[in-house]
Amino acid sequence: MRILIYGAGGVGGYFGGRLAKAGNLVSIIARGKHLEAIKKNGLEVESINGNFKIILSKVTDDLTEVEAPELIILGLKSWQIPEAAKELKSIINPNTMVLPLQNGASNVENLMKVLPKENILGGLCHIVSFVSAPGRIKHVSFEPKITFGELDNSNSVRVQKLEKVFSDAKITNIVSEDIDLEIWKKFLFITTISALGGLTRVSLGEMRESSYLMDLMRKTAGEIKNVANAKGIALNEDHIKVVFEVINKLDPKTTASTQRDIMEGKPSELENFNGYIVKEGNRLNIPTPVNQFIYECLLPMENQARMQAESK
């Protein structure tokens, strides 16, 4: 299959490498020193499941050099989706599948503002991986898994084909019977811990030691559930219970990627996480005071980080 990985970070680099290793024609969009290193030496993946190095079909920062793909995997941050969709519009045809794997609940909505709904699949992934050096991806935790599906949850021919492509690449994958619910289940977890971690600037273990902060997390999760329910997503108390079981089992040194971006003064997914809940809550007349408190406290730092990034 002809595959384009748009964004060669921890997620795109790992899954793109696996797909290329299985014999697919994989092109990657990368930037800067990361691009130069992959062009020169290939893509190196250091994984708890075994290391490998792969030469890709095309490594570039110019979409005009890429042959029209059958599948586009979006491996960038959720706040980068709108701009990416505008760029990708030029190489999409009626048979192209676009699969977002970002955290966040609004990725499909944002893609549909630019691209035809028929091209878009729903998706998410579970993996802890990152760029450890230019041209090198390090996978350190979780059995990598992709969950995906048609937006209407139908078991289409293209979904069956994609399931085989992932399986042949030894990527654990699940075709979801309710992809919106799966996306929101992960969103519930990541939004409950990420921005509050950025606000407190401490690890998950230190937050767990505070009954006050744990209560804030539970209230954050409850508001997310209420907004999801108003949108017709079947999140329930059992899903919240599972989230807190995971929170209580994670390594105490754990920090979320969005939290680290906030602490390092980088643009983050704050707007797509707690900000999205606040805005959808306002639209649907659902109170979200805790999410709004976290969001508003972090927003000045987020705006500053974005201004600094744009000035570079």
Would you write up a description of this structure?
- It is a single chain.
- With 312 residues, this protein is of the alpha/beta class.
- It folds into two domains: 2-177, 3-Layer(aba) Sandwich (Rossmann fold); 181-311, N-(1-d-carboxylethyl)-l-norvaline Dehydrogenase, domain 2 (Orthogonal Bundle).
- Helix content is 48%, strand content 19%.
- It is built from twelve helices and ten strands.
- The chain has helices at residues 10-21, 32-41, 81-88, 107-112, 157-168, 179-200, 204-208, 211-230, 237-249, 257-263, 274-284, 289-311, and strands spanning 2-6, 25-29, 43-47, 52-54, 58-60, 71-74, 97-100, 122-133, 136-149, 172-175.
- The strands form two sheets. Strands 5-2-1-6-7 form a five-stranded parallel beta sheet, with helices on one face. Strands 3, 4, 8, 9 and 10 form a five-stranded mixed beta sheet that branches.
- Strand 6, helix 3 (81-88) and strand 7 (97-100) form a beta-alpha-beta unit.
- Helix 6 runs antiparallel to helix 8, helix 6 crosses helix 9 and helix 6 (179-200) crosses helix 12 (289-311).
- The longest helix is centred in the last third of the chain and has 23 residues, at 289-311.
- The chain is globular and about 50 Å long.
- The model has no long low-confidence stretch (mean pLDDT 95).
List keywords for this structure.
312 residues, alpha/beta, Rossmann fold, N-(1-d-carboxylethyl)-l-norvaline Dehydrogenase, domain 2, five-stranded parallel β-sheet, five-stranded mixed β-sheet, 12 helices, 19% strand, globular
